[in-house]
């Protein structure tokens, strides 16, 4: 059960230290390395935070779940941007098309940037209480991946960096630029 959390704060006011240990959510990586039509305030804020984390030599973690979300969200965004006249009927058809070759290369380049900047972190799926997570999932509007990320941060003593308002009230430390999470 997610509870009220006073551990959430504005990332723009955080003083980064080498002892900080962060787990960056897919939406943060997408803000920094994802497809955009133009830079926006969110990409500027999270790019600056990532730069400060690296300068301060913080530990930055990523797991396969987040990397997979980054890759799939990036590909689906590119698919959604295709002109209706040339857009395949199904996403899977797009992935099999010649048009996807350039997209997949761009995604891979950006995924490598993530891997170069973050430590690979094991998901902990073998040790989390999946029965409890599924019970919570079936009781309401919970995202399964978010629940796994929350448990991963709890067990690893990691601060979650996210823009996802679904984490409001999660019983973990969170840094964000999303006011809905810390007000």
What would you say this structure looks like, in words?
By secondary structure, the protein is of the alpha/beta class. It has a single domain, classed as Rossmann fold (3-Layer(aba) Sandwich). 50% of the residues lie in helices and 10% in strands. The protein has 8 helices and 6 strands; from the N terminus they run E-E-H-H-E-H-H-H-E-H-H-E-E-H. A 6-stranded parallel β-sheet has the order 1-6-5-2-3-4, sandwiched between helices. The longest helix has 19 residues, at 99-117. The radius of gyration is 17 Å and the shape is globular. The two termini are 20 Å apart. Residues 1-5 have low confidence and may be disordered.
Query: What about the largest sheet?
Result: 6 strands, parallel
What is the CATH fold-level name?
Answer: Rossmann fold
Q: Going across the major beta sheet, what is the strand order?
A: 1-6-5-2-3-4
Indicate the percent of residues in helices. Answer: 40-55%
Shape: globular
Order of helices and strands: EEHHEHHHEHHEEH
Full CATH superfamily name? 5'-nuclease
> What is the CATH first-level class name?
Alpha Beta
Rounded mean pLDDT is: 90
Span of the ends, CA to CA:
20 Å
Low-pLDDT segments: 1-5
Content of β-strand = 5-15%
CATH architectural label? 3-Layer(aba) Sandwich
Beta strand count: 6
Count of all domains: 1
**If you compute it from the alpha carbons, what radius of gyration comes out, rounded to the nearest whole angstrom?**
17 Å
Provide the structure class. alpha/beta
- Distinct helical segment count: 8
